[in-house]
Amino acid sequence: QVQLVESGGGLVQAGGSLRLSCAASGRTFSSYAMGWFRQAPGKEREFVAAISLSGGNTLYADSVKGRFTISRDNAKNTVYLQMNSLKPVDTAVYYCAATRTSIPWATTREYDYWGQGTQVTVSS
User: Fold this and answer.
1) Tens-digit pLDDT profile for residues 14-53
2) Burial category of 99 from C-beta neighbours within 10 Å (exposed 0-12, middle 13-18, buried 19 and up)
3) Residue 22 burial by CB count (10 A; 0-12/13-18/19+): exposed, middle or buried?
4) How far, rounded to the nearest angstrom, does the alpha carbon of residue 15 sit from its chain's CA centroid?
5) Could you tell me if 61 and 106 are in contact, meaning their C-beta atoms sit under 8 angstroms apart?
């Protein structure tokens, strides 16, 4: 069992930056590939980024490529999402997720554990 707690969301102006963190419980964090997803009001949850066990492989949605960076610190049981050049369309609740596989999947159905989410609002 893994419990995930996101933090770092907030209100930022367009063009600004935020760094989200997701702290995981348990001593097996390095056994889970991790992902970030987001959900805007009235829309389905969508993939943002994912990272492999060691952090050597990453995957990004086209909409955030070049602006967002996912990373992890296995010693701190934490995964991060650095978000730069934010746009109003990035406004959403951001969720981190863990999968009991080594593959950084881009689909929600592959993930076994989810955090409660953190709100990110980008004003124009």
Assistant:
1) 999 999 999 999 778 999 999 999 999 999 999 999 999 9
2) buried
3) buried
4) 19
5) yes
